[in-house]
Amino acid sequence: MTRPMSPMHTTEVGAPAATAIDVVKLYGSGETAVRALDHVSVELVRGEFTAIMGPSGSGKSTLMHCLAGLDTVTSGVVLIGDVELSGLSDKRMTALRRDRIGFVFQAFNLVPTLTALENITLPIDIAGRKVDQQWLDTVVMTLGLRDRLAHRPSELSGGQQQRVAVARALASKPELIFGDEPTGNLDSRTSGEVMGILRESVDTLGQTVVIVTHDPRAASYADRVLFLADGKIVDELRSPDADAVFDRMKTLEK
Ligand SMILES: Nc1ncnc2c1ncn2[C@@H]1O[C@H](COP(=O)(O)OP(=O)(O)OP(=O)(O)O)[C@@H](O)[C@H]1O
């Protein structure tokens, strides 16, 4: 079987998309310092869908933010592809995030004065790239946004705004998509649709997707679930079903 290539880049599926090596993240200093990440090492390979789970405060968002270059580490190394983030200037870091990473956050960060379509294509426009109309149509159709493209965010429901945010992340076919609770505000049907399109982008485009979620059903769409507790990766499941994820979470939350 020929494996798909990563969408925008020539490196093959299976190569590291993001790597953390012995990462420690402290917030604050001295006696009151919080050790949000405690010597975490993990490799996320291209063309794989990873879900990060764990109890509240276990370090999930911190790990994702460090892997995405949105936060710096106290010690250790983070690489996107083969680029080490700690060596980058702010300008190069911003360019790397813009060119190679798509984000879906729970607070959708849509621009209120732009239409849904303008929001979806904004990162592509900012990067000065051309929209792949066929892919954009597929994304918009799959997410059920065709009739909503001329609406501004205030004229959309929470679920529709979330779908616009997902479409925006997918539209530029970035090398890596990070989602922080990307289905957090959605009903189970819409949540299933959003996870379905993320899954499809992995299967058909060789996209690499990393999400933080509390929802075992959402996590069951992933190839791999990483479990964090007290800032450490304590377990992982491959090709998980929702029940197995739920059971593992129950033991961690005790
Ligand atoms: N900016 C910050 N300043 C100080 N402490 C922080 C900061 N951000 C996170 N923390 C602490 O770091 C730890 C890990 O937080 P993080 O948000 O990564 O956890 P999480 O697993 O994503 O939690 P949740 O599921 O509740 O969102 C927590 O103890 C949190 O209080």
From TrEMBL:
It comes from the Bacteria. PROSITE patterns: ABC_TRANSPORTER_1, ABC_TRANSPORTER_2. Keywords: ATP-binding, Nucleotide-binding, Transport. GO terms for molecular function: ATP binding. InterPro entries: AAA+_ATPase, ABC_transporter-like_ATP-bd, ABC_transporter-like_CS, ABC_transpr_LolD-like, MacB-like_ATP-bd, P-loop_NTPase. Residues 18-254 form the ABC transporter domain. Gene3D superfamilies: P-loop containing nucleotide triphosphate hydrolases. SUPFAM superfamilies: P-loop containing nucleoside triphosphate hydrolases. This is ABC transporter ATP-binding protein. The lineage of its organism: Bacteria, Bacillati, Actinomycetota, Actinomycetes, Jatrophihabitantales.
